[in-house]
Every structure is written in C-alpha cells, then in structure tokens.
Amino acid sequence: MIMNYPNGKKFIKQEQKINLSIYSKDRGIYSNRGMTLEEDLNETNEYYREKNIAVIHKKPTPIQIVHVDYPKRSAAVIKEAYFKLASTTDYNGVYKGRYIDFEAKETKNSTSFPLKNFHEHQISHMEQVLKHGGICFVIIRFSIYDEIYLLEAKHLLSYWDRMKNGGRKSITKEEIKQNGYFIPLGYQPRIDYIKIIDNFIG
Q1: In angstroms, rounded to a whole number, what is the distance separating the alpha carbons of residues 101 and 90?
Q2: How far apart are alpha carbons 67 and 168 in whole angstroms?
Q3: Which of 3, 89, 149, 202 could pair covalently with 103 via S-S, beta carbons 3.0-4.6 A apart?
Q4: Is 172 known as a binding-site position?
Q5: CA-CA distances (angstroms) from residue 107 to 8, 52, 114?
Q6: Tens of pLDDT along 83-124?
Q7: Is 69 annotated as a binding residue?
Q8: What is the 3-state secondary structure (H, E, C) of 157-168?
Q9: Does the keyword Mitochondrion feature in the UniProt annotation (predicted)?
Q10: CB neighbour class for 141 (10 Å; exposed up to 12, middle 13-18, buried from 19)
C-alpha cells in the first residue's frame, strides 16, 4: 500500500531487524528482544491498563483512502492513501487525574539526539500541553546501547530554542543524562516510565 504525507511526499517505512529474546541471569533483566520502542511502549501501556495504574493509548493517525482494489467481493485492498493531517505526538492519556502526552523517538546516533527528528507542529503541541498544565515529555531510545531516557518537554523546548537561535542542532547524550531520567529495561512493565513521572509530579 502506498502512503503519502499531506504534502504528497511518499511515506517510506524502514524495515526493522529482529533479534532473538535472551534472558541474562547476571544482569537480571531481559536484554534486547528485537522489539521497537513503539512495541515496548504499547506492551507497557497495556500492562498499566490491566493493573489499573494509568490509561495511556497510542494516538491513531487518520488517513484519507484514495485508491482501493477489490480482488474479490469479500475483500478490499487499500492501494493508496494519504495522512489527512500532520500528527502531533505519539501517546496520550491520564494518570492520577493528570493529562499525559508524549512522543517516542529512537536514534542510532551514539553521542547525541538530532533535533531534526521533531517537527515544528510537534513542538508547538508540546508547548500548548505544558501551558494547560499537562504532563509532557519525550522518551528517547539510543538503539546502539538499548538505553532509554525520559526527557521532560520543558528541557526539549529549551534545546529547540537554542537551535532556532543558531545553536547546535542536536541534544548531546550527556545533556539528556544530566536533565533526563534513565529508564532501566524490565520485564513487566518493559519501560516503566510511570515510576519516573512520580519523581517530578510529586
């Protein structure tokens, strides 16, 4: 199926490499199971819902279907579609009566996170969420090390402003470690970001 952005540019999905699941007794945690950050977060959110901890969902992306084939009467195959509008962030929901909104990003870069991974409309959305008292952040995975960090949106916005004012076009890993929170990988939940949120909402 052909997917296109609102500006007509084609959407190209990158293939994911799959690795086997390995349990390390020495480390006491499950190592990289070949799952994407999105899959790990979806599994984590399902755990939160089942345990009545929080209600967080991945936002659906609305599409406009423009070409459908009907190879047989009982089946339809979508051949071409467009994203109807630019997406904001990946996830939202509620925890302890507070609105939560966050983006999830991965990078193969080992020393920094490129700000080009964000779009202007996503930054504007995060600013609005913070303005109205919501909890907003980004979860970043350094895939080379399989390390995951939570960075509050207020810090991301300051780095974005720095770039806009002629500064560096990335956030160094050291800056993320200094201002963010390391999330150790677990089993259930896989990425326990709610425990991190408790650190900064009191």
Answers
A1: 8
A2: 43
A3: 89
A4: no
A5: 26, 31, 8
A6: 555 568 989 999 999 999 999 999 999 999 999 999 999 999
A7: no
A8: HHHHHHHHCCCC
A9: no
A10: buried
pTM across the whole model: 0.74
Whether the CB-CB separation of 136 and 88 falls below 8 Å is answered with: no
Bond into 189 cis (ω within 30): yes
Calculate the dihedral angle through the C-alpha atoms of 25, 29, 34, 40, rounding to the nearest 10 degrees: 160
CA 12 from centroid of its chain's CA atoms: 18
Question: Is 103 labeled as ligand-binding?
Answer: yes
Cβ partners under 8 Å of residue 13, min gap 6 = 3
Rounded to an integer, the average pLDDT of 131-152 is 96
188 is in an annotated binding site: no
Q: Are 34 and 21 in contact (CB under 8 A)?
A: yes
> Which residues touch 113 (CB under 8 Å, ≥6 apart)?
105, 107, 140, 142, 170, 171, 173, 176
What tokens does 58 get?
Answer: 């991945």
CA dist., res. 7 & res. 44, Å (int): 33
The number of helix segments (H) and strand segments (E) in the chain equals: 5, 14
